[in-house]
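Sample entry as discussed:
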Amino acid sequence: MPFMFQNLTKRKFISRSLEERRQFVKDTRLCYGCLRLGHSAKDCRSRHCCNTCKGRHPTCLHDDSCNRKVRSFSAQSPENAHEGVATMSLSVESGCTPVNTSMIVPVWLSTHKDPVSEKLVYALLDTQSDSVFIECAVCKSLKVDSCPVTLKLTTLVGKDSLMSSERISGLRVRGFNSSLIIDLPPAYTKECIPVDHAHIPTMETASHWKHLATLADKIPPLQNCEVGLLIGYNCSRALAPREVILGTENEPYAVRTDLGWSIIGPYFTHFEPQSSAAMCHRVSIKEIPAVTPTDVIKVLESDFKDTEGHTKVTSQEDIMFLRKLEENIRLNKDSHLEMPLPFRKRPYLPDNKPLAVIRLQHLKRRLMRDQEYREHYVTFMEEVIEKGNAEQVFEEGREGERWYIPHHGVYHSKKPGKLRIVFDCSARYKGTSLNDHLLTGPDLMNSLTGILLRFRQYPVALMCDVEKMFHQFHVDHADRDYLRFLWWRNGDFNSQPQTFRMTVHLFGASSSPGCANYGLKHLAREGERLYPLGSQFIMQDFYMDDGVSSIESTEKAIKLAEEARQLCALGSLRLHKFVSNDKEVLKTIPPSECAVDVTAVDLALTDQPLERALGIYWSLEQDNFKFRITVKDQPATRRGILSIVASLFDPLGFLAPFVLKGKTILQEMCRSGMGWDDNLPADLQSAWEHWKADLVNLEKIEVPRCIVPSGFGRIIRREIHHFSDASMSGYGQCSYLRLENEQGDISCSLLMAKSRVAPLKITTIPRLELAAAVVSVAVNDMLKEEMNLADAEAFFWTDSQVVLGYINNEARRFHTFVANRVQRIHRTTTPQQWRYICSDENPADYASRGLSVNNLVTSNWFRGPKVLWEKQIPAPMEISKQLPIGDPEVKKVQSLNTQTVQYSCLSDRLTKLSSWSKAIQAVARLIRRVRKDKSHNHSTLAERNDAQCIIIKDLQKQTYAEEITLLRKGKRLPRSNRLYNLDTFVDQDGLLKVGGRLCEASIPNAVKYPVILPKEHQLTKLLIADCHEKMAHQGKGMTINEIRSRGFWITGVNRTVASFVRQCVRCRKLRGPTEEQKMANLPSERIEPSPPFTYSGMDVFGPFITSKGRKSNKRYGLLFTCFCCRAIHIEMLDDMSTDAFINGLRCFIAIRGAVHHIRCDQGSNFIGARNELTKAMEEIDTNRLVTFLAEKQCDFVFNAPHSSHTGRVWERQIRTVRSVLRSTLSQSSGRLDDSSLRTFFYEAMSIVNSRPLTVDSLTDPSSPEPLTPNHLLTLKPTQALPPPGKFVREDVYARKRWRHVQYLAEQFWGRWHKEYVSNITTRQCWHTPRRNMQVGDIVLERAVDLPRNEWRLARIIEAVTDKDGLVRRVKIQFGDRNLGKDGKRPHKPSVVERPVQKLVLLMEAA
């Protein structure tokens, strides 16, 4: 015995009762595990083993009354938190000596973050569980990160019960004597793992059996650690058997896993009787999905998605509930209303007493631990029994109608020391619970907002409460056995619990709120004739068991209180805790029924044990509303911010502008997808700290309770004014009541307000304004109904002219969003009620943008805008209510014209067919049916000839009816007839044919006398197509020959066939020319005087081989051409790198001056060394080149790819330079070096720049010197040309040199205008405008290096229109033959830009 018992002998200690022994251990603060000082049982390392039950406690603390402890635990699928998983646990803890061992092995547990720190625990390898569990204490010692989750448990003793847990990831484990590491899937924490330590196999277990004796040295000895881990079969590697040793029948067997050896089976060869039966718990759990940012956003944006009012809907079950109570409610002998339990159908329930016993044992342990809790619990239960709310049961009752309800106590956070017993009617047993069979009934509670609004209407305020409302309504005797429970009479916990049953409706039953509300309203209806005021008070102004109302006068308030008390007394209900701002009212109420020392009343009107950070209170002394602040220190995370923002209780929206700022911060966190416990980002930190610090200032706000000022007098006019507004951050509305008395005085006060954050989905401001307007309409309907203001005139104010346009418009049709909301507005308001107000005067602007507390107090938020305080409200402001043109919310009107076409002849019906042969076949089939031939064989030649004859005869009848009529009468056709020259006649078949001069020819009659066909009919086109395809698309001539050889004569056949061939897609593909377009106008930079090289074209040519010593190098020429004076400049490039290009540009700009605009090709259209130059050009960094030129204030523009004709200005100069260089290089033998090549470039540049720009005056000896680019280069001024002023010939002899220079420059530029510009006026080719290519055209891209049948097919997706309205370049999208299995492209389609000269048109867009 430890030293603490030196004053208390062992025999004396044992002689005491178990409760006294436990109390002694508790008072002396000993360890319950080893009876020593200095630590608790949780941290005990040397626990004693009980000799009676082998439990982990001293034998002297063994409890014989508790023979069995059953613990259930939960499991969860680690992969998917939203799917329910079932877990079978065979772990049982019994009160008898264990006779079995299980798969329990010692393991070393660690984490990925800290693999060095290992924890020794026992692990239960459970093959019936599919999840991993870890003990909470072990989890804390490992210091591993966790995520809180909620699990929904379903066991044999209950269903869908919620349990808080934590999800752990990153665990790993290894065997006691092994180095093999096994990674565990995510695990869930549990307070304890329900395993008896006696079930752990040891060395003694192995040595007890001969076939397992060899394992005695392989199984570790019993370790001083807890069973802290359960591994399910979702970690199959840990449970996989590597080796198995079997015994004979009824002998244990051994299994080796990667975590070590374990022994499973009985400890003895015979079965010993057990003191209690073992139970197997099947546990099914489901992790409740966490509240996501989307869920929070849905709550914040709830008003935006709903345009209908929150109407109460009555279901069929609600009707059944009302019918059952209406038919069976009665007043019993105790003057209490008695109602049955509203079952859906009278249930047959299993006997769940074992469940009640287990739950009662759990309750007993808590009662033993907490003395204060025990005293409050016993007091409450004894009071319930003494008042007759519960009665003891001695008979068994009918089978199937007995149900035992577990119970527990709950403390109210706002009422310390007040315990309420809650009966768990949701506790499940064998898959069912009492609440599953009860009807909840309709929502009979009055609106809390409506009650608070009526509470502000009149001067005298009154509040009261129904004492223990649920217990005042009794349950029918036939249903009371469903409400049984177990309890110890007089709190004697050493005795056996006794059976009681409730006689009243209890807390915890889902039907109790509905029954209590129905009973209260039933009582009010029954006493309506005797107590009209009291009946109205109970019917309208009660929220559950709290009555809140305001009355016009003291006398009426006194009468109301008296009637309400008398009315409730009819049903034995006691109204107490009366509170009023009028002392005269309280004097008429017995003191025992009045509240004592009440200065402020919480207006939450709920008895739920919840905590709020901010609440609205009624101060009796000052008769106003105030706000109390009790903000807990929450972390600046999404979880903490949501906790504070959601706890603000402001049902009337007095603080709407302030609350909006907090909601906006929360929404921003949800928008960014932050986790629940992620820290607040820095950009929101300051805003949150400022908003949180501003909460304290809310205590400064005071709002008068009564909306009518004291001594205001008789009210002659009431008006409700609603203001709405919206911004990008939110939208809201506020409603004011404007009163006018007989003297013309005005009073205005805020009734209520709403504010909502703007939805994350991008929404236009007009839509937000319209949503705010709909909220105003809904609030107006609610105010008129709740406050009985039907005679009050309502006005609606908005600062959105677009919304007013929507409301006043009746001719336009809107899209669904706007249409639904405009319809909702028109349902209860008229356009005349809507008015415009400036944004600066709109108080709803605060609700849509937010305000701090100080700004809220100093603003006109609570009083309303100045316009409402004026004696006469000004007439509505005249504004334009017309919708702007192009409003996106207005539906485009489409007028559809349906035309019915009736075919009167065969030839017109055949136009729907796609070919001439199909038309022949169709008619041949019809002929066969007419002849009553039902065979399905192919048509014969005779049938096809007959069909062709019928088709042609019908076609000629429709086209040449007059001609056939004349010829049949024997008359000739007039000269003006189009068939006059054909010598036409009608043959014996009735066909119109050509006569001609071939009567004596030895050819078939079909060719000698061809049938005449009209050129414009669709059947004729089908015939041409058939002949054209038969000739394999060989052109017009061969197609005409085929038509004639078949015996057909088409009028105007040449043009008709030529037109068809031009439209033939296959012919276009085989022989179609590329597209052309009229040559574009010259750009302004080519025809307006400007300094040389201000507008230039650039190109590269080469390469040229140079040598230095024994090394050969490739050099290139960089050519610049001036668009204005046609001068050139050449720089040598060492290579084709970007750096070399930039160096060349720098040299060019340094010599020639600033450049404003440079054009360049993109394609590989250089002269000579095409492939090599193309490869070199691909290495140039275009972006870097553009950046360099941008720094020089120069635009760098690329021409369309493959459009060399747009760069002929410099392409022509390259050819000229090539010819000059060729003649120069021919004079030099051997290879050049770099300096020589650069010299030759400059010589070529000088020669080219000396060429004349025009050749008109070269043969005239009297003409001046020909104009060359050098003339314009040598006199290049520093300012833009042409120069200012007028210069004459005499300036040549002037003494001022600058005028001499200016005169010469003007002479050269004048000659440039006369001689050069006039010569480039005419177009050299492409004179005629052609059809513009359109989006949707199908084209071929011309590729010079590929045969025509390999040109790629493409579709035009964009056409670029020039200033003259013509399209010269387009963007095309190439087709792809390689499609996926689903018929879609496997890759992104290729889109390129091409000039029209590179495309062949196949099919025009529809």
The chain has a mean pLDDT of 80. The longest strand covers residues 1095-1108. Residues 906-1071 form one domain. The chain is about 30% helix and 20% strand.
